[in-house]
Structure formats: structure tokens, C-alpha cells
Amino acid sequence: QVQLVESGGGLVQAGGSLRLSCAASGRTFGPYAVGWFRQAPGKEREFVAAISGSGGLTYYADSVKGRFTISRDNAKNSVYLQMNSLKPEDTAVYYCAADSSWGTVVAGRYAYWGQGTQVTVSS
């Protein structure tokens, strides 16, 4: 079992930056791929970015490519999402998720989820 806790959300103006953190506990974190997803009110949960267990592979949704960077520090059992040039349409609850398999953007394929952190971008 892996427990995930997100932090770092908040209110920021358009063009600003935030850094989200996902802290894991319960099992050795290294073997798990981690994805970030987001869900805006009235919309389905959507894929944002993912990173492999070693950190050597990353993948981004087109909507955030070039603005967001995913990284991880397995020694600290943590994954990060650096979000720059934020836009009002980035407003959502952001979730991190973990799974032993790499390569999926489908939320239902991830076994473990955090509770989410709210990101609000004002115009």
C-alpha cells in the first residue's frame, strides 16, 4: 500500500508559478511511476504529466508542455510538479497517483491516489 499526500496548491495570478509536491509513504517509492492529474468543476479528471520510477522518462499533456515540469527525489519519497506561466484554465484540483506500471495516461490505471490540492489561477 502506498499513501500519497499532495501539497503546494494555492491562489496565484495568471503568469505566476506554483510548485506542487506529492509525498509518499508506506512502501519504497522508487519502483512506482507517478502521474499528476487535474479535475476542474464539471469536467472529467485529465492527465497532466507522468514520470517513471527512476525519473528517466517523463510525459506531458500538450496543454502543459513547455510550462510544467515533473521531477522526483526517491530519497525523499517525493514527486514534484513545477508549474510556470499559469493560466486561468489551469485552475483545478490537482492529484498525484502512483502505479507499478509506466506508460499510461488513463486515470483508472493508477492504483494509488492522494486527496488532491486546489490550484486557482486568477486572471
Structural overview:
- With 123 residues, this protein is mainly β.
- It is built from no helices and eleven strands.
- Strands 2, 4, 5, 6, 9, 10 and 11 form a seven-stranded mixed beta sheet that branches.
- A hairpin with a 6-residue loop joins β5 and β6.
- The radius of gyration is 13 Å and the shape is globular.
- 35% of the residues are buried.
- The mean pLDDT is 95.
Keywords:
mainly beta; single chain; seven-stranded mixed sheet; 123 residues; 11 strands
Structural class assignment: mainly beta
Distance between the termini: 40 Å
Helix-strand pattern, N to C? Answer: EEEEEEEEEEE
Radius of gyration: 13 Å
* Amount of helix: under 10%
Number of strands: 11
Q: Which residue ranges are poorly predicted, with pLDDT under 50 across at least 5 consecutive positions?
A: none
| Spatial shape | globular
Mean pLDDT across all amino acids: 95
Number of helices: 0
Which percent range describes the beta-strand content? over 45%
Largest sheet: 7 strands, mixed
Layout of strands and helices, then pairs:
Blueprint: E1 3-7, E2 10-13, E3 18-25, E4 33-39, E5 46-51, E6 58-60, E7 68-73, E8 78-83, E9 92-99, E10 112-113, E11 117-122
Parallel strand pairs: 2-11
Antiparallel strand pairs: 1-3, 3-8, 4-5, 4-9, 5-6, 7-8, 9-10, 9-11
Short structural description:
With 123 residues, the chain is mainly beta.
